[in-house]
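Need tokens for this chain, all 333 residues.
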Amino acid sequence: MPVPPDDIQRMARDLISKHPDHPARSLARMLVEQCNGAITLDAARTRIRKLFGQSGERHRKFRTGLERPSRRPGQGVEPPKSQAVPWTHYDLGVVGTVGVLSDIHCPYHDDVALRAAVDHLHEREIDCLLLNGDFADFYSISRHEKNPRYRNFLAEVEQVQQLLRWLRSEFPGIKIVCKAGNHEERWERWLFQHAPELSMSPLMGLDAWLGLKELDVELVTDKRIVMAGNLPILHGHEKGNGISSPVNQARGAYMRLHHTVLEGHGHRTSTHSEPDMMGKETVCFSTGCLCDLRPAYAPLNKWNHGAAAVTVRENGEFDVENFRIAAGKVRTS
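Here are the structure tokens for all 333 residues:
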């Protein structure tokens, strides 16, 4: 049964009222479908264009009076606001000597090596101390299989607090910064899994549990780069997977980053340098650890004790003393 022209006109007006931002061709297809093919697609599109006042001056009288939204790309529609948090570096802001202690793994540290490292930093008269990740072990809340005899997280926290109090007493007048490594991140991960409702409370932050404010110690989290002048310092876990236990850890860092860096995490002292095409030198350093070298989970390994002292000049240039510790003695060559 034919559809009266007036009904087709009414259908067209209704479609425009409901979908004023649709293209004329899309509205024409909808009109053809509604009137069961009573008009062709071209005729429907012509009718729609007339109602929009797009068919010349003499057809403006057919215009519906509806304002047709601009169809320029992106106009009238906004993307969602980004939830991304800016990732910025942390600048130590120190001109002088920075002591870098990585991978203490308290309470599984080596007493002799730690004492030797601190004594050497006293000799260097450091102006700032950086605990470059894994200063705590947090064995009892790790995802790995654990010996129940050693599962006492509160005792671990108290021992880490004691370590920090001791370091503050050793270096009472200087800036001390703790950078979170993968072992410190166990705390946040454990909270997310077992107490998500409490995880966002400032009272549950690692800095609060360790009493860092009272010790005037800063905590750097979120895998941020620490800058000592022009020298970027990483714990080492920030790079993610890809190079597993390279023969020369510093070269492994170079292969991943192609940028000068000092890092810990691998528990091995190494240095690697390469010039670029223009002769500019890139140097990477990895520091030794200050933890037990024969842990039960990995008694055979390639680790060594060590730490670093970084001298920063006013122009940002730096020198790195990447020293080893053997049998309680500092080795600088």
